Amino acid sequence: MNRQRAWMAMVLVPALWACGEGEASDETGFQVAVAERRDLRLTVEATGLMEPIRTVEVKSKASGEILRLHVDVGDRVEPGALLAEVDPRDVRNAYEQAQADLEVAQARREISEAQLRRSTELLEAGVITEQEHEGMNLEFANARAALTRAETNLELAELKRSDVTIRAPLPGVILQKSVEEGQVIQSASGNVSGGTTLFIMANLDDMQVRTLVDETDMGQLRAGMAATVQVEAFPERVFEGEVEKIEPQATVQQNVTMFPVIVHLDNRSGFLKPGMNAEVEILIDERRGVVTVPNGALVDLREVGPASMVLGLDPESVQLDRSAFATLQPGSPGAGGPGIGAGTAGGSDEAGARQNPGGSEDFRVRRDSLMARVGRGEISQDSMRTIMAGFRNRPRSGGAGSGQAPNAASRPQAMGAPGGGAQRARPGASDSTENGRASVAFVVSEDGTIEARALLMGISDWDNTEVTAGLEEGERVALIGAAQLQAQSQEFLDRMRGRRMGPF
User: CB 3.0–4.6 Å: which of 50, 316, 357, 392 could bond 276 by disulfide?
Assistant: First the structure.
């Protein structure tokens, strides 16, 4: 027997080899599939609406009648392009009045300045008093202030005169036109309601899709991930983008917590339009040319017992050597070989006995004794687990294992018994070992035998899972339906309870 590979129980099923992929066996009624090499893509899919990154409302600072509109919906404009003109008569009159006021202020300042010079000369000659001279100083100061006000008013009037011509604030496309020629509009700066919106425009060279992603997928997403977007208008075209940001505030829709995810797209081609329905696919991980099996071929370590019953095997004769998963890790002896992790009942006990003489027998005796006490109601199952955990970890004396705690990886555990740690394959499931997630598949050989084999899994989509170690391309595996597995679970638990409560 090859010591680098630990085998699980193998049971001969007559005539099973004649069943092809996906064909049911007459004796057992289950199906088989072939491990194939394929590409796997782990993605998150969602839907959303196409929208511009920034949308601008164009309003007028001047009130009045719209005389001319120079653009229409869909027109592309550059910054500063003339969009519309408002009736300029009021602001033109205000500008001309400001010019006249400025001329008067300038003349008054010049006269006041000349009078101040004469007053200074008369004060020096003793013709006028000091008080009269101070009055001329005040008159000059007022004239100078009036000139400043007139200059400021003229500048404001000139700005208002330019406000009657509405120009584009940024490059973009006119998305909406809200006014027509002849309509009277309200100023945005002089009206408490914010004034009249003339146009809505946006730069469509860069677009974004705002989509909602389920919170279960948020742990796998991050900004900068590649994404592909498809729209109904161009079903054969795929638009490349990337995740720009994930907004922190969740939204709840029909009792499902979702997070907004923004996907940025380059739209210089002009194909994408605001409001288009978009299907987004964000790439989480990808594997090319890897060995895969259908998800239905993989079972949780805790489900191996019921799965064995589905396949017609005796679950009590099937035991799991946990050292199989350690052996599958890179760099370990026999890593990657098929069949590693499958073993006959008691095989791992013999290996443990060689490493620690007497240890396996002591373990079995203590376990059987405690199970008997549980059956009599003297202790609970939780107490039994606590005692056994301490028993496993205590130092043992004698033999090669003197002074060493037994290796937990070398202890067998009945398949399907509590304590299995793997989870059923699901897209994006987290790793449970250094090189993959632990799982078990039932491999069907050509001569009809079924071998329960330990595997390490990689990424998984909704249909298939990558096998990183323990299985080779072309090997056949049994498919176990979820309904069948659920149906056998209760029967298996009842069977295990009956065995524990029986005589020892």
Answer: 50
H/E element, 483: helix 482-501
The pTM assigned to this predicted structure is 0.59
Contacts of 482 (CB under 8 A, 6+ apart): 296
DSSP 14: T
What is the four-CA torsion angle of 396, 401, 407, 411, rounded to 10 degrees? -80
* Tokens 């009792």, located at residue: 255
Q: What angle do CA 74, 75, 77 make, to 5 degrees?
A: 135
Q: How big, in percent rounded to 5, are the helix, strand and coil portions of the chain?
A: 30, 30, 35
In contact, 241 and 209? CB cutoff 8 Å: yes
Query: What H or E segment, with its residue span, contains residue 58?
Result: strand 55-59
pLDDT of 445 reads 85
- CA 54, distance to chain mean position in Å, is 23
CA atoms within 13 A on the CB side of 27: 12
Q: Could you tell me if 136 and 90 are in contact, meaning their C-beta atoms sit under 8 angstroms apart?
A: no
Q: How many CB atoms lie within 10 A of CB 277?
A: 13
400-444 pLDDT, tens digit per residue, is 333 333 333 333 333 343 333 333 444 544 334 445 688 888 888
Cβ(77)–Cβ(171) below 8 Å: yes
Tokens of 211: 């989509």
